[in-house]
Amino acid sequence: MSRTLARRRAAGFAAALAVLGAGIAVAVVAPQRPAQAASTLAQYAEAKGRYFGSATDNPELTDAPYVAILTGGEFDQLTPGNSMKWDTTEPTQGQFSYTKGDAVVTLAQQHNMSIRGHNLVWHNQLPGWVSSLPTGQVQAAMENHITNEATHYKGKVFAWDVVNEPFNDDGTYRTDVFYNAMGVGYIADALRTAHAADPGAKLYINDYNIEGSGAKADAMYSLVSSLKSQGVPIDGVGIQGHLATQYGFPGNMQQNLQRFADLGLDVAITELDVRMPLPETAAQDATQATYYTNVVKACLAVSRCVGITIWDYTDKYSWVPSTFPGQGAPLPWDANLAKKPLYDTIVAALGGPTTPPSSTPPSSTRPSSTPPSSTPTTSTSPTRTPPTSAPPASGRCHVTYQVASQWNTGFTANVTVANTGSTAINGWTLRWTFANGQKVTQSWNGTFSQSGAQVTVTNVSYNGTIPAGGSTSLGFNGSWSGTNAVPTSFTVNGTTCA
Ligand code: G3I
Fold first, then answer.
1. In the chain, what percentage of residues exceed pLDDT 90?
2. Is 271 a catalytic residue?
3. Which of 48, 67, 150 is nearest to 106 (CA)?
4. Of the residues 58, 79, 82, which should be mutated to test ligand 1's pocket, given the most ligand atoms within 8 Å of the CB?
């Protein structure tokens, strides 16, 4: 299972290609939405090269208004909140059930959203038969579970929380059934087993209370440093981000993320929410807004922070009230599925407009004293480009192709298409040619096809319009062998950006 090459950040940043260019003759492809500037959390995040996702759970998927928002463009990534956990997927030893997880995957695929797999090994939501196993049988059961599930979701999840919450808050290892049977070596074994089953997935260890500096974050740092030095396949650290207004904001969050990144690891904010003691007050809302802003800005400040996932998007389905009675209101949509002012705070932190729109009708479900909110398909940007269906007379483009990470047979690349022209691009087709036999194996935020060496990417429903001065980001996992040269030429709608 050991790799001949440690995963590394390629010299891709040095090789990042900026192609500034000639006019683009833009073919009009009927956009599925009115042309507009970035107007959703996902779009603002994508403009910064990140995803913005939400957890969800199967019972909620019968709630049509909820699903409409979940899939309406605000999010480009989903995490199943429960349906890929051990108690759901292997409730009886050797009997696997993926119906619930598959439902979330299908929903994500239908709406061009990526999936984080959550999770493979965790002390919680573990069926009783695992805890009852004789010590000598735990390793085989763990490896079988990981192999079966990671194989089932191969190519469907871009990342796995392979091990969830291995630490106590004081930084000691949680003495769960896995630790008791195998010692700390269960973590490396789990990662190696997951890598064998799905070599293309990014493998994470995920935990809470490691957002800022402290004993638990130090313990995680020590663990992942050791794993990296042993050549164990680990790609990232998941920072859950379950915060509470009454406990203060974690210290040195950005520096903490950066030190993980400096080990050659990605970091992701995997389960963000900020709860408060109820009733909700303006003062607590302000504190909550500051916390969300701090988290988003910390992520944006660390280039290897790949994205942010909130732990569901609406208070209607938050895990908080049942776990912490008397606390709640942790998310940017309220229990009536109306956006709170917090939504605009997050938009601003992502680099969007800093004031709520004046033209958007207020939600009938928010108290009249709250600022206006908008539907997921309505821009919150007061400075957005006026909708237009006409093709730009001319334009310019700027393509950045960045090899974000590369390992012995695979790589991940992020591509940003910027419209440096004066009019919006409505519908786009991006093409390039690989020089060394690379193949796209998995992709997001674009519809990819490959014919021989030529790759064609067309926009998906939510990113077809690139406003003047705007950009959109997409990405893919690929395979390579020998050389993985960065493509030297790109076209947008048939015209070379060169
Ligand atoms: O499925 C049963 C149902 O049959 C039963 O009637 C009902 C009665 O309470 O319980 C249902 O199970 C619940 C399960 O969610 C599915 O809804 C459990 O009681 C409940 O405890 C469980 O909570 C989940 C929690 O993990 C368990 O620790 C939350 O939904 C889920 O959001 C939460 O997620 C975790 C992450 O996985 C890891 N990080 C922390 C995060 C928040 O706790």
1. 67
2. yes
3. 67
4. 82
> What CATH number does the domain located at 3-37+376-497 have?
2.60.40.290
For the chain, give every domain's residue range: 3-37+376-497, 41-351
| Candidate list 74, 90, 165, 271, residue with the active-site label | 271
Q: Report whether residue 124 contacts ligand 1, using a CB cutoff of 6 Å.
A: yes
Alpha-carbon dihedral angle through residues 109, 315, 62, 51, given to the nearest 10 degrees: 0
Backbone phi, then psi, for 491, in 5-degree steps? -120, 150
pLDDT, residue 229, reads 98
Give the closest residue to 39 by CA, choosing from 492, 464, 443: 464
Higher pLDDT, 446 or 288: 288
- In contact, 379 and 440? CB cutoff 8 Å: no
Question: Tokens in use for 199?
Answer: 């070599």
CA–centroid distance, residue 57 to ligand 1 (Å): 10
- Which of 18-22, 384-388, 390-394, 419-423 is the most confident on average? 419-423
Query: Domain 41-351: what homologous superfamily?
Result: Glycosidases (3.20.20.80)
Please report which confidence band the pLDDT of residue 355 belongs to, taking 50, 70 and 90 as the band edges.
low
Q: Which of 58, 104, 125, 211 maximizes ligand 1 atoms within 8 Å of its Cβ, making it the mutation to test the pocket?
A: 125
| Omega within 30 of 0 (cis) for the link into 112 | no
Q: What does the pLDDT read at residue 36? A: 56
Report how far ligand 1's centroid is from the alpha carbon of 115 (Å): 19
d(C-alpha 265, C-alpha 160), whole Å? 14
Please check whether residue 75 is in contact with residue 52, taking contact to mean a CB–CB distance below 8 angstroms: yes
312 Cβ below 6 A of ligand 1 = no
Write out the DSSP string of 431-469.
EEE-SS--EEEEEESSEEEEETTEEEEE--TTS-EE-TT
Q: Name which residue leads in pLDDT, 143 or 468.
A: 143
